Amino acid sequence: MQPPVQPSNEAQRLKTLDETALLDTQNEQRFDRVTRLVKRCLGVDIVLISLLDETRQWFKSKQGLDACDTPREISFCGHAILHSDIFEVADSLQDVRFKDNPLVTGAPHIRFYAGAPLIIDGSAIGTLCVISKAPRMLTSGERETLREFADLVEQEIVDRLQEQAHAQLSARE
């Protein structure tokens, strides 16, 4: 297993993540709606909005998985945030980076993974990722769909920040 390396902008990335005020918050319909739609549209077992802090990946929204987080050092998403485009692993058992990963050899038995980085203010704070227990590859249309849904999640994060700023301003007045 190869743990993911830290991005070159790790300090800024963590600052941006902190500014979103998303970590360890309750479920929100705006994000759960997206993950439900992605699961249905792409026919995968698991869909996550995964946010990566210093030590873990924490799931803001999840479909098909009970865990709330996993260690960053075994995360597929830790690799995905290093890419500007979708990071895809067609068959984790055939990939030297992941074949002995505990998320592959044990529950949830990841065989296929694709993660679209969530970019806020130039930093990849996490991913919208899809996972299956069987090997596969996304078609070009499915890749486009995943990226469009990731763009939607990014916009929901920005909208949420604006709503919070507006509420704080209203409270001061």
TrEMBL record:
Lineage of producing organism: Bacteria, Pseudomonadati, Pseudomonadota, Gammaproteobacteria, Alteromonadales
PANTHER family: GAF DOMAIN-CONTAINING PROTEIN, SLR1143 PROTEIN
InterPro entries attached to this UniProt entry: GAF, GAF-like_dom_sf
Pfam families, A to Z: GAF
Name listed for the protein in its UniProt record: GAF domain-containing protein
Domain of life: Bacteria
Annotated ranges, domain GAF: 26-167
